[in-house]
Every structure is written in structure tokens, then in C-alpha cells.
Amino acid sequence: MRKIFLFLVFLSFVIGGGINIDELKNRAKSGDSEAMYQLGYIYENGNGVVTPDINLSLYYYSEAAKRGNKDAALALELLKELNNKEKPTFHSTKIYIEQKRNILKELKSNRD
User: Would you call 101 helix, strand, or coil by DSSP?
Assistant: First the structure.
């Protein structure tokens, strides 16, 4: 639960433009898997902070997953499947959409 809360706080900073990309990159270079995961998310979605870059997103998710970050491992698996030349499965797409929807609902409820 704590991890979800921290991620939602992070998302609110990203959406609000209050995230320091250089700081995250420095933390990632130091081996911080959470920073790597956050960079993966930022590069996947852009959110007005950076231009979306799937290759960078895959890289950061992969590096975070190698260091044991389970959220990054799931995000990496889903992103690979969604970007695969083959059609993604209904199940993985449904999970991906539900995750995004839940994050947005949590953000909205925290703002109210």
C-alpha cells in the first residue's frame, strides 16, 4: 500500500510538472530501481514532461526489473506485449487499461 501511495504522489508531481528529470536520472545511475521505474513511466507516457520514447521506457523498466522492482517487471512485460508486432492478448490489454484507470481514479479522489 505504501508503494502505491508513493507512486501516486510521484504521478501527481509528474502531472503537475513538478518532477526533476535530472535528479531521477542521477538516482537511476546510482542504482535506484524506483527512480528507474519512474523514468520508465515518464518516458512511456510523456505527460508533458518529456517526449514519449518507448525505447527509453523499455530500457528503464528493464533496468529496474533487473534490480527486483516488481512493478517495473510487470510494466515491462505489458509494454513489450503491447508494442509487439503481434496483436496483444485481450487479457494483457485489459490488465494494462485497468491499471491506468485505477491510477487516474486514485489521483482524482486525492484531488477532491
Answer: helix
Residue matched to cell numbers 546510482 = 30
Kindly report the three-state secondary structure assignment for every residue of 52-100.
Answer: CCHHHHHHHHHHHHHCCCHHHHHHHHHHHHHHCCCCCCHHHHHHHHHHH
The Cα 81–Cα 8 span in angstroms is 24
- Domain membership of residue 62 as a residue range: 2-111
Task: Answer for the pair 61, 72: CB distance below 8 angstroms, yes or no.
Answer: yes
**What is the total count of domains within the chain?**
1
Tens digit of each residue's pLDDT (9 = 90 or more) over 34-51: 999 999 999 998 877 889
The pTM of the full predicted model, rounded to 2 decimals, is: 0.63
